[in-house]
Amino acid sequence: MNNRRSFLQKLGLLSAGVAFAPALLTSCDSANQKTGSATSSADLTANNTAVSPGSGLRDIGIQLYTLRELLPKDVKGVIGQVAQAGYQDVETYGYTPENGYWGLDAQAFKELLKANNLVSTSGHYEFGQYMKDGNQDIVKRYIDAGKVVGHQYLTVPYLAEDLRNSADAYKNIAEKMNKAAELCKASGLKLAYHNHDFEFKQYGNTTGYDILLQETDPALVSFEADLYWIERAGRKPQELFQQHKGRFVMWHVKDMDKTTPSLNTEIGTGSIDYPGIFAQAKVSGVDRIFVEQENFAAGKDPIQSIKQSRDYVKNTLLA
């Protein structure tokens, strides 16, 4: 998880050439509506529990952090390759008001997406300073950029340990999220929270994640379930979906290497029971999924890898 923490603590700085190999990269990451879809999150929770071909899940997204070693070097080329691999949606990361999206301002990035028949329904933004001081200016700047790009969600991707080291700290996070979510709502957006495994640490008879779920307003704050990290924490996503129906509007779909659980692998080749999880999709409220893979086997072409994962999701899990 150190790579992800280091990256987010230095948000805005470009990564320096790390090879895509398991030995070098450890796994560490990380009602949303389909653009133009007639299916809402309410629809998704209404009837059966299986995924239907008519749901918003038909448009498969990718968290661009997956391609963090390639993207800053050739934004236009990599976005084109993402589209060619069959993706329709991209989730951003690393935006700063100074550097924009890998050197492109919001309008230029939106035009790049449009040229490749892509949308961006969610973006990961750094909320650490806001959680410390409550200054909403940065949140407003995120909202301004997100509206231009076409986001439906601003997503909190990660919080440093000093912000989440007690039950009271999580209550502060929940309070700040509710306030930021009010700003998002006023601009036609919504706020979401993306988990790792540390949120499941016990504080007495509760966990940080329980606190966030209980103390954020369901009408304002949604959750992006990172299925890999839920499994790494020893929990089952299906149980959370049943306990908090309709709140997990987005998923991060990444698989766990069978021999080294700290590493990711292509969807369908690891140890996570994705058919069982997708069978509970409507209960969770999910309407958008983002494939993510944070490390690649030595010699594996990242673009081929993301295409393999996309094809498995499309042709097997959503068939």
UniProtKB/TrEMBL annotation:
InterPro entries: IolE/XylAMocC-like, TAT_signal, Xyl_isomerase-like_sf, Xyl_isomerase-like_TIM-brl. Residues 81-314 form the Xylose isomerase-like TIM barrel domain. Pfam families: AP_endonuc_2. The keyword Signal applies. Keywords: Isomerase, Signal. SUPFAM superfamilies: Xylose isomerase-like. The keyword Signal applies. GO terms for molecular function: isomerase activity. This is Sugar phosphate isomerase/epimerase.
